[in-house]
Amino acid sequence: MQQRKNYVEIEEDNGTVLRYFHHTNGGGLVEATATVSPSAYIERSAYVDCGARVEADARVGTGAWIDRDAVVQAGAVIGTAAHVGPRSVVGRVAMIGPRVKVGARAHVCSGVRIEADTSVAAGALVRDRAGTRLRAA
Questions:
Q1: Is 1 within a domain?
Q2: Element (H or E) spanning 84, and its range?
Q3: Nearest alpha carbon to residue 37 among 60, 18, 57
Q4: Tally of domains within the chain
Q5: Domain range for 20
Q6: Contacts of 120 (CB under 8 A, 6+ apart)
Q7: Contacts of 14 (CB under 8 A, 6+ apart)
Q8: What is the CATH classification number for the domain harbouring 59?
Q9: Mean pLDDT by 10 residues, the chain (137 residues)
Q10: DSSP 54
């Protein structure tokens, strides 16, 4: 009987092979060089790319993608099919809605809520002390 692997390998366009392991809380795929807190929840069809960091009590929803070197801080929620771009930061307890696209190097500050189907431009700084929601245009 053949033993089943506990990881998935994906080859990039340049030939580099990335190895993803299933996170213990939710079963989502986490690349070997990413750091994900044991208390974070990574939905089974979500994945966290190399160098990314997902902190304590954060939640990453169905089909969501945390790109290279991105940071999802403690208690943040990433909605279904959302994409957090490379080197982006999602602040503590921020909420990223379904199908939101956060551009590369963008920073969504703590407590900010971004509504469904919204795009955050690359390099943008989204902050609001009152917790006002950013909506799709």
A1: no
A2: strand 83-84
A3: 57
A4: 1
A5: 7-129
A6: 100, 101, 102, 103, 106, 108, 114, 126, 134
A7: none
A8: 2.160.10.10
A9: 77 92 96 98 97 98 98 98 98 97 97 95 83 52
A10: E
